[in-house]
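Troubleshooting: if your tokenizer reports a length mismatch, compare your output against this known-good record of 145 residues.
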Amino acid sequence: MIVGFNTNARYRGRMFHVQTEDSGLNHPHVISHLYYEGSILGSQKSDYAERVGTEDLEIQVRALMERQHKDILRKLKNGGFDAVIAERLDHAATTAEATVLNAPVPDPPDRVATTPGEKPLDEAILDYLVQKSRGRPASGRRSKE
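Known-good structure output:
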């Protein structure tokens, strides 16, 4: 079994990942997957059972892996996965945005003072600003004059 190939490829502002692996002599095939955030968007599988037993099998499998890996990357760059990207990613993004935009807005929480008898911060600030604009010291604060 040959160690696989992994490539990250940026396409249309998104980072995709291509992974190609040899499944070994017990399952003589090479498989490549195109991933986006852990989800498989496309795959390509090539069987090499008819080559098992040849002298240069490792060289042949490595060449098959390289060719298939490059094919997936080329297909991505040439728009070959655009339909699945639009269906699975753009639709999911649109659905998520619609869910957020159409979600009910919760009522604001009741204002709660942090200490019994203390005003909520927004009220304390408002009182301070009103008192300051009238030229008086704000309640609860000493003037330094």
